[in-house]
């Protein structure tokens, strides 16, 4: 029934370094940080990105709206980059759990942030890779010559999600709008039953299968033989690296937010917690009980937050007096069976985007990969290092290889920093750009899984003028 699970025993265990080979000269590697695909295409650049502090849902942001966070991210971006509002030609903005009052939240937040009323905006939904899609949509619009300067971003607000009346109650309410006579109204009133008052709750589950992502993650852990101890160790690594990055000021993409009615300001992510292995080991399974291995500690938590970034051409950046941080080189999207391979997007996207650029695993100096669950990360790493997986699922003769984990999510990831669904993609891109500069690297790779069995892979390259 589930071929990946049935045959997963053949997947090689452990991590091994892989000697990567550059397979073509689509991108020439050099230390001038100024390569491009060819002489006719535009150099599209990532100028900079910002985000609100990512907070656990139900904490300091709980009385706000998604609109408030989105507005602040757009306002903070303009303030940080100091770009006139008239220079922004378009806005692509992502969200997943949509607030019905601000259905096109990109447009509403832009107006609230003081952007020009003549700047169009649209809202994107692609689950956890929504703001990756915002960035790449901006790249496409720029490459086609439609616009030159675009803001991309995303917001998620899990402190207040839309909860509907039951469908039966909604039907009655719609009929009530059409009822003309007292008799018609009384007939509808008499048909109400107690079951009509049971709310229609949204679920973080696949529509196609009805399975929650956590259950899928537990099955993936079992398929690849990933132990609870391995997952807890990876989660501890994520929190430890994030705490160090926060302490050393590396998370400079965070913009301070003054929440109305609260004393002080919110100026840092609040989900970063370094626990002991013993504390992590005491937590009970969160999904598959009592035998599952995914817990609240080794899974990303429900998060509120927003992000925004400026995407433009290298030429336009010079005209505006801006110093870009990185080139946006190329990207790819992938999709698999949402039942059997829901969380394996990176294992498919990474080899595909590397092949598009002619780069190998060892050419990547910065890895920023979304951490939905520790099990998901470890499963993808094992898949990349498996000849069997490569031959049977990637249609490759040999494995992709294991990335250098010293370069992997070096400032923590979604497990520790948080994961506001539609805001994470820009956070990954901004951290990639900042790490390329700080760590003196040339190429960075972004990858993420998403609901529906989808995934993304993106390549960024440090710009010669880049500064933090």
UniProtKB/TrEMBL annotation:
Its EC number is 2.3.1.16. Pathway: Lipid metabolism; fatty acid beta-oxidation. Residues 44-315 form the Thiolase N-terminal domain. Its main location: mitochondrion. Residues 322-462 form the Thiolase C-terminal domain. GO terms for cellular component: mitochondrion. Keywords: Acyltransferase, Cytoplasm, Fatty acid metabolism, Lipid metabolism, Mitochondrion, Transferase. Transmembrane segments: none annotated. GO terms for biological process: fatty acid beta-oxidation. Belongs to the thiolase-like superfamily. Thiolase family. This is acetyl-CoA C-acyltransferase. It comes from Odynerus spinipes. The lineage of its organism: Eukaryota, Metazoa, Ecdysozoa, Arthropoda, Hexapoda.
